[in-house]
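Batch manifest, entry 17 of 40.
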Amino acid sequence: MATATPDLKARILEAARKQPAPTRREVVGRVTATLMSAIAVPLLAFIGFGAVRPGPRPWSLIIATAAGAFGIALAAVWTAFGRSGQMVGRARAKLLAMTVAAPATFVLWKLLWSGQYDGMTDPWADRPGYRCLAFTILLAAWPFLALSSVRRESEPTHPRALGAALGVATGTCAAVLVDLWCPVAHPGHLLLGHVLPIAILGLVGVWVGDRILAIRRN
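Output type: structure tokens
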């Protein structure tokens, strides 16, 4: 690789000096707008695709499963996106533990409550889960990109684990909306349509972590 000449280095430094650094208010405003869009975009898509669809489910079941799923999603986002007061973010072990625990807890919570109502875990022959798989990934796509952009080139120690955690966290958030949209709680459907997309997002997150979240070294 060619070495930069002193004149080129001087011009680069001069250009950097002329480029004004954003103020703290500008940074906070940009981050806030990005995070708000990460909430608004999937909500609008959820409404556009029909919003809550109770089907044969009683409202008590819908509220119970959604409340639990929402709590799991909040814990996942807090673990993945927060730094817990540390400059280098959370430990790799905590991030990896969340990537496993969030989808597992979500499906167990869904099955636990649905199993208490007659017929709620029965299979639906015409709904194996492919639409829910695609819908989950669709709803999670922009929040995943938004959170990744906010944390761009900020992870010095374990970017792949962070990327996987962000993918799983946003996938779990999307799963909350898909749970409100989908009345099926058969185990096979849940694994294919609700848990598999979270796992896919986690795997994509490994690549995102390596390419986007890692601090680049010259």
